[in-house]
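User: Can you predict the 3D structure of M48 family metallopeptidase? Sequence below.
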Amino acid sequence: MATDTGDSTLETVPIASGTVTVCWRPSRQARRISMRIDPRSGHVIITLPRGARRADGLALLRAHSAWVVAGLSRLPPVAELRHGGRVLLDGAALEIHHAPEARRGVWLEDGRLHVSGEQDFIARRVGAYLRAQAQLLLPARLGIQAGQAGLRPTQVRLRDTKSRWGSCSSDGTIMLCWRLVMAPREVQHYIIAHELAHLRHMNHGPDFWLLVDELTPHRRQAEKWLHTHGASLHRLVPA
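Assistant: Sure. Here are the predicted structure tokens for M48 family metallopeptidase:
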């Protein structure tokens, strides 16, 4: 059965090892059929350019079903944001403690994240708290690093991106994924340094990487952490 979600359509599709959820995504810009796994939803995203048939997308899916199954198996489990569950902030795992009688919203105390109100709203409130922390902390940390480096972005924006942790546009606007607030400080420091370096070098050439290494000592450590744990940040909190 297919379900419409705006311009995209979700459909459960059988493959040799079971079923997968395919998100059919039409595109006027795409020149060829492409396929990827969304680390957040676990859906297989198949992009169809103008004039492409679903049958061709299904053929691509079934030809690469082993790759799809392997990719899905590597996804970390979706964290349950409930009493006793855990969520990350600055790389520290915080236990979620439901305090139904309290009237304080969400607050951090004694290494636990306390959540008041009804149980059904725990996930929503934890997500809102983390977004608020990201808005409070990430631009301020970027400002400190930018000042130390003598670099000035024109704007800093937070978004909920799926494939990039940050970006820098030609007009000097830096974008950071708000989910970075869950990563260790060293990882945040590296991503911020990476984007600041683009203010001087809009490429990934040797001079760019030399500047990155001048701006942060955490490049290798952060890249390794993101390779190992990055996908889990997309699975911790609902969009």
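Helices lie at 54-63, 65-74, 122-149, 185-197, 206-215, 219-236. Residues 7-72 form one domain.
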